[in-house]
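In this supplementary section we document a worked example of the pipeline. Step one takes a protein sequence of length 134 as its only input; no multiple sequence alignment statistics are reported here. Step two produces a three-dimensional model, which step three serialises into structure tokens for compact storage. The input and output of this example are shown verbatim.
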Amino acid sequence: MNVVIDGKAVAAFNAKPVKSRVGDTEVEVEEASARIKAVHGFYTDNEVVIKGAFDAFGSLVAGELSTKTTDAVLDVTKKVMGALDCVKQVHPFIQVAVLAFKVVIDFEIRRRENDKRVSALIVQGADMMIELFE
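The serialised model returned by step three reads:
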């Protein structure tokens, strides 16, 4: 693996006293530790939702995906959307992407529900026509 190092950055780093370099490293380690603690806290706060989404994805094994109905896949997607609600708090750009995904899934779920209602209405209309002709 080749590493490209800027000569000016190396010179600036070497120009600092060793104690300063160690102090800078300690600060960076403390900042990284704080970020790791924040991520761990986020995970523990949302552990149930994240595990539910993970288990839902686990139920969609690639070999079984072709045998699943679209309703079963949409049920998994609903669980994943719960996990995405947690993830969208990380960054504003992620929030926009999650919102777009949720809108598309929500429209698809509503469309399927409306298709079922239309089918039921057609069956009721057909039953009424049969009664009229008897």
